[in-house]
Specification:
This protein is mainly alpha-helical. 58% of the residues lie in helices and 8% in strands.
């Protein structure tokens, strides 16, 4: 990320209340990792009174299939929404990657998304969707 873009993107954010979501299947893409390191450094520089491990545990989560790499980065394994390494392309939105969109758009968009998704797939997928832990959790959290 360009430093000017980074300044614009973080202007007005409070590091104490910021949650960074890193979405990277392999956790090796150069640009993604540069952005992730930049955000981690920003958090570490701006949150006082806590160690780097605590800051990473409380402010950074990931969606990735590379669980060892997320751990090496300093992300608590409990804060990683994993998905299979064969998930990719247009299907990644149906994995943990979809969490970011759901959190950003809240429940009305998530519900509409799920209804439209269901209309596009075979009925047997209905069972998979409603037993998928991520979507069950999101629906419970966003509709409370």
């Amino acid at each position: 990320m360009d430093p000017v873009d980074f300044k614009r993107a973080t202007a007005g954010l409070d590091p104490e209340t910021t949650l960074v979501v890193i979405v990277s299947k392999t956790f090796t893409t150069a640009e993604t990792m540069l952005n992730a390191r930049t955000m981690r450094a920003w958090l570490l520089e701006n949150i006082k009174g806590a160690g780097s491990e605590a800051i990473c545990r409380q402010h950074i989560v990931a969606c990735s299939s590379a669980l060892s790499k997320t751990s090496d980065f300093g992300i608590d394994p409990a804060n990683v929404f994993g998905f299979w390494d064969w998930v990719g392309g247009r299907f990644s939105i149906h994995s943990a990657v979809g969490m970011v969109r759901a959190l950003a758009r809240r429940s009305c968009i998530l519900n509409s998304y799920l209804v439209n998704l269901f209309s596009l797939v075979k009925p047997k997928f209905y069972f998979c969707l409603h037993t998928n832990g991520l979507f069950v959790m999101l629906r419970r959290v966003l509709f409370l």
